[in-house]
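Build the 3D complex.
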Amino acid sequence: MRKPFINKPFEEYILRGKNIIVGICGGIAAYKTPHLVRLLKKSGANVKVALTDAGARFVSELSLATVSQEQVYRSMFPPTDKAGMDFTRHISLGEWADALVIAPATANTLAKLASGLCDDMLTACFITLRPGKPVLIFPAMDGQMYLSPSVRRNIRTLAAQGAIIVNPESGDLASGQCGTGRMPEPESIVRDIEQAMLSSIERSMLHGKTIVVTAGPTREKIDDVRFISNYSSGKMGFAIARAAALRKAKVTLITGPVHLETPPGVERIDIESAIEMHAAAVNFFSSCDIFIGAAAVADYRPSVYYGGKMKKESGELQCTLVKNPDILADFGSRKTGSQLAIGFALEQENGLENAGKKLESKNLDLIALNFFDRKTSGFEVDTNILTLINREGEITELPQLNKDEAARKLLDMIEAIYRKTSIDT
Ligand code: PMT
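Done.
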């Protein structure tokens, strides 16, 4: 194996000199927004804040003005001492912006945006933003509110208009309950803005590419109430699908049973067993540009399936297991031309050696090695530590990253393979 090399950070300077409006609504997550503004400023962006009246109850105008080094915009009507000099302010702010980021977005503001209501600077910016400029919306609210049919409908409307909706995260909520509704951390929001800017300015190499991602576990039935499975949560595969959709790829996610929301813009196919996952995947083998196997597919299934519930007998129960099809290897053996096969290797020891063997035997272009300590990497946890190995044997060791960030790095590496291929040919 050759020495590790550093992947080119192609998104590093993307926000420098860009004009970004941060729209802040009235939710407890608003307390995170001064930090968000600071991070954007540190990235070299010019930031102006549009704060709703409700937002001003959660975060102070003074803090936001201090970190943005700009006045904070609230009312569409200029202060009386400026009346007559600033009569187009409800238009000019939206025209100024290269991107609009609404974080947190409340149910109330989502409803206004979806219906075209425009009674403060934030909603005016949304309407007056120039075509093609990215809008990123980060809904954050109580879990029940987020799941209400009207919020779901408004989110769908905004997504259909081209807004990038970033699903809230799960965890402890201000209501004291645990559920979906938390705004992502500012660092993650900045990464999403970078990705969106990249797709809108410099088209990502993955723009328009057809990508199939497998995710989650498979369940191999013993009878109608029992199965063999594993601890995969689907988080890694879903993070990849989400990151690829943000780069405007056409993404199909084939997933085993998981408790995760479908990322916006992603087509989802739910399956249960390895045989079903294989059958669903085969349909895309000839048409997809990239196949990414992040699923923890059960290698074996019971040879006999008992319909109904098997009765408990005295003595031992013998269960013979037969091999499941290897979905990724099947794609690897059939791929043609510029199609890319990307795999994962979940290992316990001799990681590099075993991952290298899988790369070869499954005819992959890139493999992501990870280990299953279930504290920092592998199954269930929100973070992963990936080592990426390409066909030339080049190794990129990534640090511990949250799975969204790890997914972006994996896609960066896939883009690098595309770039190299287009230079070589
Ligand atoms: O879902 P999470 O909780 O977020 O956890 C993420 C993960 C640990 C599941 C993920 O990061 C991961 O490592 N996925 C691959 C797990 C695995 O099955 O590894 P493997 O080394 O056994 O398989 C190698 C590759 O072949 C994988 O890309 C796998 O998807 C694929 N495979 C394996 C067997 C099979 N029958 N069909 C396959 O396609």
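The pocket of PMT is lined by residues 214, 216, 232-236, 274, 293-297, 299, 324, 326-328, 343-346, 358, 370, 378-380 (CB under 6 Å).
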